[in-house]
């Protein structure tokens, strides 16, 4: 079991560029989430999904899109990168809403 | 709106000293989870508490859930350098328990 994998590990973007952060899990978990982590701000939920074809917004969804076409994959798209999106992004999965979350290793994104 | 306060924000101890972090909620909780994040790493699940007044132990770590289910604590006895990291509590969003709300974390530094 690889658990939750994220690619890339590091990325530098210029303002206005778009990109997709990849997240995959091999645990057959229904729930998947994207968080961003900024110094002093803890973890903030961007988007989440409770199953294939179902997504919903978290606390800070603006500037990000998600889709969930399969149980395994949950990509996060930055539509037009801004310096305010410089952050560490974590993907997480869980079997259900009252179970532990399993996190990927994170993607460190810098937008210049 | 719902708030989760974690104190202290930082704690610096000598190896062998005890450490406690507290998580306080503005609303009654159905459960609370605790995670540890090592520097440069991702959050890793430690435990979930569900019952009022619950106390759980994991080796040198003791977790408590308050009688009113509005607060919780994590206590580490005789800290070691391996305890270094940030400890987060996470609670279900009262309006949508599919989402988690995270405390800002307590960063623990241990002097050898």
Major sheet attributes of chain A: 7 strands, mixed
Q: Please give the alpha-carbon distance between the first and last residues of chain B.
A: 41 Å
**CA gyration radius of chain A, whole angstroms:** 13 Å
The profile of the biggest β sheet of chain B is: 6 strands, mixed
Which protein chains are joined by the largest interface, and how many residues does each one contribute? Answer: A-B, 25 and 21 residues
Helix content of chain A: under 10%
From the alpha carbons, calculate the radius of gyration of chain B and give it in angstroms: 14 Å
Question: What's the tally of helices of chain A?
Answer: 0
Share of β-strand residues of chain A: over 45%
What does this protein look like?
The complex is a heterodimer of chains A (112) and B (112). In chain A, 0% of the residues lie in helices and 52% in strands. Chain A is an all-beta fold. In chain A, strands 2, 4, 5, 6, 9, 10 and 11 form a seven-stranded mixed beta sheet that branches. By secondary structure, chain B is mainly β. Chain B has strands at residues 4-7, 10-14, 19-25, 32-37, 43-49, 55-58, 61-65, 71-76, 85-92, 100-102, 106-111. In chain B, the strands form two sheets. In chain B, strands 2, 4, 5, 9, 10 and 11 form a six-stranded mixed beta sheet that branches. Chain B has a five-stranded antiparallel beta sheet with strand order 1-3-8-7-6, with no helix packed on it. The A-B interface holds A 31, 33, 40-45, 48, 50, 56, 58-59, 90, 92, 97-106 and B 30-31, 33, 35, 41-45, 48, 88, 90, 92, 97-100, 102-105.
């Amino acid at each position: 079991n690889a658990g939750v994998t994220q690619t890339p590990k590091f990325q530098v973007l210029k303002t206005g560029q778009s990109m997709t952060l990849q997240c995959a899990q091999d645990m057959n978990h229904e729930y998947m989430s994207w968080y961003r982590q900024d110094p002093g701000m803890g973890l903030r939920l961007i988007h989440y999904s409770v199953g294939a074809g179902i997504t919903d917004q978290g606390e800070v969804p603006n500037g990000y899109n998600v889709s969930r076409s399969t149980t395994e994959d949950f990509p996060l798209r930055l539509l037009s990168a801004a310096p305010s999106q410089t952050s560490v992004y974590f993907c997480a999965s869980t079997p259900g809403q009252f179970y532990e979350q399993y996190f990927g290793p994170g993607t460190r994104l810098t937008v210049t | 709106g719902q708030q989760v306060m974690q104190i202290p924000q930082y704690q610096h101890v000598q190896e062998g000293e005890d450490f406690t972090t507290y998580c306080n909620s503005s609303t009654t909780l159905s459960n609370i989870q605790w995670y540890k994040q090592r520097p440069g790493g991702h959050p890793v699940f430690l435990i979930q508490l569900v019952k009022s007044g619950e106390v759980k132990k994991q080796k040198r770590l003791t977790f408590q859930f308050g009688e009113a289910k509005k607060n919780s604590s994590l206590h580490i006895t005789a800290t070691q350098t391996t305890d270094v990291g940030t400890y987060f509590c996470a609670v279900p969003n009262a309006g949508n328990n599919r989402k988690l709300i995270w405390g800002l974390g307590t960063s623990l530094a241990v002097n050898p």
